[in-house]
Amino acid sequence: MSPPLPPPVGLIAGEGPFPVLFAKMARRAGRRVVACAIVGAAPDEVEGAANRTFRVKLGKIGKILDHFRAEGVTDIVMCGRIRKEIFFKNPAIDVVGLKLLAKLKDMRTASILASCADFLDEQGFSVKPSVLFLGEYLATAGVMTRRKPDKREKEDIEFGVRMAQAMADLDVGQTVVVKNRIVVAAEAVEGTDETIDRAGRIAGDGCVVVKMNSPRRDLRFDVPTIGINTIRRMKTAGATVLAVQSGHSLLLEKEQLLEEANEAKISVVGADPRS
Questions:
Q1: Residue 139 gets which letter from DSSP?
Q2: Cα 120 from Cα 114, distance rounded (Å)
Q3: Which one of 114, 130, 218, 243 has the fewest beta carbons within 10 angstroms of its own beta carbon?
Q4: Which residues contact 88 (CB under 8 A, 6 or more apart)?
């Protein structure tokens, strides 16, 4: 008699390749994936990566939970960015969504995600880390590329780590761009790539991009992620170093990302803010 199959994992999918990668790796680990792809955010590729996909508007929380219950889901992950701009476009919110909204203390990312996790727990679901099944894609400590940072860049990394963690702790953004120990640009709702573009226009070549998480952030969600497009934007902007938090940051399409960084002579470093 064969052992029972593990229950499917529910995926609430936002922007970018992160939810697609999660679905593929979860299936490789033997888990069936049921995705609720957020309209206006989740990429079309989610449908091919998950076993079953439902397209759901952001405010239809009751519909999301109904889909998961019908599919036998008890474990949920949240992957991919949902831009706060969506909240300004008057999404239609159902009754269950209004109950969740009433629990929010404010609209900071940390508050929203913590309230979502507590609410899902009350509804009988368990929110799991979004890096489940993705250990091989986490940033490792030290230099991950052929080129190493020079003395000035190392000083900028050290300074930038402190600044980025402070910004993340305030829930403003996770990324700062530094040159000569001056914060050239800091991320807000526009995202990492546009922050890099702005820094390139302001300070030109030689900028150091640092992306960190808050020391208090729950790693079940909102894990800092870097994709190939970030390396390409850095190349265009003339940025020379990318520092991310080792063990806590995802490098999507990691092998190709590091290959393109090597070709662009960009140093990618896993930094430990405790050191």
A1: P
A2: 10
A3: 218
A4: none
Same domain for 111 and 199, yes or no, is no
- Distant-in-sequence, close-in-space partners of 158: CB < 8 Å, separation ≥ 6: none
Compute the half-sphere exposure of residue 222: CA atoms within 13 Å on the CB side of its CA: 24
> For the residues 189-199, what does the mean pLDDT come to?
92
Q: Does residue 121 sit in the same domain as residue 157?
A: no
Strand segments, DSSP code E, in the chain are 9-13, 33-38, 52-56, 75-79, 126-127, 142-143, 175-179, 182-186, 208-211, 225-226, 241-245, 250-251, 267-271
Whole-number Å distance between alpha carbons of 65 and 85:
24
Considering the domain architecture, whether residues 114 and 144 belong to the same structural domain is answered as no
Strand partners, 242: 209, 268
Q: Which of 95, 127, 159 is at the close of a domain?
A: 127
What is the spatial distance between Cα 85 and Cα 191, in angstroms, rounded to a whole number? 11
Question: Residue 2: inside a domain, yes or no?
Answer: no
Burial label, 124 (beta-carbon count in 10 A; 0-12, 13-18, 19+): exposed
pLDDT of residue 218: 67
pTM of the model: 0.83
- Structure confidence by residue, pLDDT tens digits, 104-159: 666 666 677 777 888 888 899 999 998 889 999 999 999 999 999 999 999 999 99
**Residue 200 included in any domain:** yes
CA distance 270 to 275: 12
Tell me the residue type at 217: R
